[in-house]
Structures are given as structure tokens and as C-alpha cells.
Design a protein that fits this description.
By secondary structure, the chain is an alpha+beta fold. The chain has a single domain, classed as DD-peptidase/beta-lactamase superfamily (Beta-lactamase, 3-Layer(aba) Sandwich). Helix 1 runs antiparallel to helix 12.
Length: about 400
């Protein structure tokens, strides 16, 4: 996100389900994948219709990637085509990874689902208010902690120049202490859904305290490396000085589009990394989807099967009036996952979308069919949201859902 833009949207979750995009004008999807297993013939018409720089997707079934593809350009105005190896930003789709790290600690006995902020962070933050200290890890992961969505005060903490005086782990603790000192919970923990990036940053701090290592090291060594996600990284997806990935783009109030390849304006603040700053290519993203779709049937055994099921289990219903792109009007939320029932699925499926206001990513996981779909673009907003829904619908219809009789 860009700090100077008026209303900054750090993250969006799940997917817009109340208004599914009209697909009548698109190409027929009966032959979405080409014989070579790429999805170019599916993706290019959708990318062109929604005027996106780049669009990528992959489908994984029974743990194997069936088809993948990426079309378009890395940067608007530059003739640099994307490839299937290009890294895309996942935004809040990374929340499920943070939740999985928490699950590992629970399996190892270092944390419990009901471990409280006070128990874990109290030794280093002794002045926590009682209501705040009583919030549990599971409430943080399911957005039922009572900690609000990104407010002006929270955003000031994210972007404070004080951060330069601390290590990243230390500034997380400082940020938590500052917010605790200045605020009281207006909604009792455990009683209502409030999508909170700060809540995930706090969960990340609890993970760091319990493990004794930075969250950035843990997600790399305990998730990226065991799953073989070789393209995975954190922060802006392009290397400084190079256009070597699908670069994100910001859009201001007047509709001006600006590529943001590097630096502080190319991603959200690192202090809130546990809420989602990962990037990777579509194949690695699909590998993550497939591991979740297996729900313990395949290795590596990052967490116990029963732990993964609990992470996938609905914790609270969500009702959000006037949702922004990437946010549903209704559904349920688990731990780092939403559950939504689309008009193209016969039941609720695990789903999440993520955006740092310059990119958009979507993941759909159907555990019953052992299938996962990922779709990504380097552009934000409603058009991007509609395009990713269109791609996901097409892939689910062809590869997952039984075709209706002619």
C-alpha cells in the first residue's frame, strides 16, 4: 500500500460472493487448458476483458498440478511479458500460513488454542490491560478478539517512524504495547467478527515469543522450505532495480495507475507481516493449496491432521454491509481461511483473497474433492476481483465439479 494515499486498504480477505461476475461475454471454457497443460487460452481473454497487466492461475488435484499459466506483462507500459515463474503477491492469503505456524506450536505443546496474550506476552509486556490480556490465540486467528479492523490510529502505528529504532520483532511488541495503552476493547472478545490485521500481528508476536525466533525465519524454515516453495519470499515481489516479477500497481482517486516495483511503497509495512506479505509463483501457490486440500493425507506433516481440520473449521459467521472488493457479504471464518458458498460450488469451500492495495490473489480449496485453485494479478480493485472469480469459476467447473449432462 502507498502511505500517502488517503484511505489505505491494507488487506482484503476471502472473495466477493454476493455479486458474481457475468460470464456470458467470455470464451467457452470447455477447453480451458491447452494440450501442453497451460491456461493461456483461458486467462488471456479474461485479462483483456478486465484490463489487467497480468493474470496467472493454477489448478491442483489430488496433490498434483494439473494446469497452470500466466499471461500479460510485468509492468504496465513496458513490453516485459510475465512467465509462469513470475512471483505474485499473496496479501492476506498468507494469514493461513501464520495460522499453520500457530498450529505447529500447539502440536509441540508450546502454545494452546486458548493461550492468552497475557500468558505469552505478559513477561515482556507487563502492563497489558486485563481484557486485552485475556484474548486467546484462537480468537486472534479467527478475528473474534474484539481488536478492530485497521483504524486511523492503527495505521499510524504501522507507519510510525519509531519503527526505525527497533528490530522488527521488537517493534511488533512496541506497537502492541502502544495500542494496548491507548485503547480499550469496544467489542468483547469472542463475541463478534472484526477482520483485524493487527490481531494477526499480535498472533505473530505470540508465535515469536513461544518459539524464540522471528516470524520471518519461521515462515521460511517451517513452511516455505518443507513444502519446496522455492520461489517464495516476503515483501515486494520484484528484486531491487529489476523488473523480474509481476510488479504491483496502485490506482489513485483520479484513476491514475502507478507501478510500484520496489521500496516502502511497494508493500504493506513489514511489522504486520504475519497478516500477509508473502509472494511466490503460481505453481508454489498451488502447492500450498494442494497441501491444504489433502488435509493431512500427504506430507510433509507440518501439523497433525486434527490440527489442520481445526484450522479449516468455521468459527464464526460473517456479515459485512457494503463489502469492499475481496470481502464477502456473508459466509464464515475459520483460522486464516474463509468459507463461502458460490453459485458454482455445491457447498461452502475454503477461500481467501489477499491484497496489499496493489495486487490481488485468490485461493479456493475443496477438501472433499482434494482440489485447489489459485488465481493472481498484479492489479487491485473490483475489476481484478471479478477476473479472479471468473478464473476460479472456470477452473472449478472444468476440473472439480462434475459437468452437467448436455
Amino acid at each position: 500500500m502507498h502511505p500517502s494515499s488517503g484511505a489505505i486498504i491494507l488487506e482484503r480477505f476471502m472473495v466477493h460472493v454476493a455479486k458474481v461476475v457475468a460470464l456470458a461475454g467470455l470464451v467457452a471454457f470447455s477447453n480451458a487448458a491447452r494440450a501442453d497443460g497451460t491456461l493461456s487460452d483461458l486467462l488471456e481473454p479474461i485479462r483483456a476483458q478486465y484490463q489487467l497487466p497480468a493474470l496467472g492461475a493454477a489448478i491442483v488435484k489430488d496433490g498434483k498440478i494439473v494446469a497452470q499459466g500466466a499471461v500479460g506483462v510485468r509492468v504496465l507500459g513496458m513490453d516485459i511479458p510475465v512467465t509462469q515463474e513470475d512471483r505474485f503477491h499473496l496479501g492476506s492469503d498468507g494469514k493461513a500460513m501464520t495460522a499453520t505456524l500457530a498450529g505447529m506450536l500447539i502440536d509441540e505443546g508450546k502454545l494452546r488454542w486458548d493461550s492468552t496474550i497475557g500468558e505469552v506476552l505478559g513477561p515482556v509486556l507487563p502492563d497489558l490491560k486485563p481484557k486485552f490480556a485475556a484474548i486467546t490465540l484462537e480468537q486472534l486467528l479467527s478475528h473474534t478478539s474484539g481488536i478492530p479492523s485497521d483504524t486511523e490510529d492503527i495505521m499510524k502505528l504501522y507507519f510510525s517512524s519509531d519503527a526505525f529504532d527497533y528490530t522488527l520483532t521488537a517493534y511488533r511488541l512496541h506497537m502492541i504495547s502502544e495500542w494496548n495503552a491507548a485503547h480499550d476493547l469496544s467489542v468483547p472478545s469472542g463475541s463478534a467478527f472484526q477482520y483485524s490485521n493487527l490481531g494477526y500481528a499480535i498472533a505473530g508476536a505470540m508465535i515469536e515469543q513461544a518459539w524464540g525466533k522471528p516470524w520471518e525465519v519461521l515462515i521460511t524454515t517451517r513452511i516455505f522450505e518443507p513444502l519446496g516453495l522455492k520461489s517464495a519470499g516476503l515483501g515486494p515481489q520484484a528484486t531491487f532495480g529489476k523488473y523480474d516479477a509481476a510488479v504491483g500497481h496502485s490506482v489513485d482517486a483520479d484513476g491514475k495507475v502507478t507501478p510500484r516495483p520496489w521500496g516502502l511503497s511497494a508493500d504493506g509495512p513489514a511489522v504486520v507481516g504475519p497478516a500477509g506479505i508473502a509472494h511466490m509463483n503460481v505453481a508454489d501457490f498451488a502447492t500450498w493449496a494442494g497441501w491444504n486440500a489433502g488435509e493431512g493425507k500427504r506430507g510433509p506433516a507440518l501439523v497433525k491432521p486434527e490440527t489442520l481440520k481445526r484450522l479449516h473449521q468455521a468459527h464464526i459467521k460473517t456479515e459485512i454491509p457494503h463489502p469492499k472488493p475481496g470481502t464477502p457479504k456473508s459466509g464464515s471464518y475459520a483460522c486464516g481461511w474463509g468459507l463461502s458458498h458460490f453459485d458454482w460450488t455445491d457447498k461452502p469451500v475454503l477461500v481467501h483473497t489477499g491484497s496489499n492495495s496493489m495486487n490481488l490473489a485468490m485461493i479456493v480449496v475443496d477438501v472433499e474433492h482434494d482440489a485447489g485453485i489459485v488465481a493472481v494479478t498484479n492489479f487491485p480493485g473490483e475489476k481484478a476481483d471479478a477476473a479472479l472469480v471468473a478464473v476460479s469459476k472456470a477452473l472449478y467447473t472444468q476440473y472439480v465439479k462434475a459437468k452437467p449432462a448436455p
